[in-house]
Amino acid sequence: MSKFEKETQKDGISRNVRGSTDDGGSALVHVDRPQGAGMLNAKCIAILAMYSKNLELYVGSPAFDANKIKHMQTMVPKATAFFEGGRREKGFRWLGFIQGALWAEGIYSIEDLKEHNRPDMGKEEEKEE
After folding, report:
1. What is the pLDDT of residue 118?
2. Nearest one of 4, 79, 20 to 48, comparing CA atoms
3. Judgement on whether residues 109 and 46 belong to the same structural domain of the protein
4. For the chain, percent of residues with pLDDT exceeding 70
5. Rounded Cα–Cα distance for residues 38 and 49 (Å)
6. Which domain holds residue 1?
7. How many angstroms separate the CA atoms of 42 and 47, rounded?
8. Secondary-structure breakdown of the chain: helix, strand, coil percentages, each rounded to the nearest 5
9. What is the pLDDT of residues 8-28, one digit of tens each?
10. What's the pTM?
11. Do 47 and 31 lie in a common domain?
């Protein structure tokens, strides 16, 4: 391990951090999150289902590029399949692309997309007794 790399352990998260190099190279940070960290597959699938339903509203609208809408519509089920099949990294790349395209088309704002990705905090599950 070079002098620019160090491993730290904090809150059960393993991090490999490489600082900037003497020759002006960029920093690299890699974080291995514990299993189950971040958005759950079910949340990602629900977001994609919402996008699929909402994209139907824009089909044929002269205000939006029909080819872009159609492309996003074909991507949603494939992205959903990645999450269902446990291919989270690829699913997140596709979800991110779809969200970027939705923003670029003006369908959702950045604030809307941030809200979609926010964990469902504060919603307590009802306990059966």
Report:
1. 87
2. 79
3. yes
4. 63
5. 19
6. 1-37
7. 9
8. 45, 15, 40
9. 444 444 444 444 455 555 544
10. 0.64
11. no
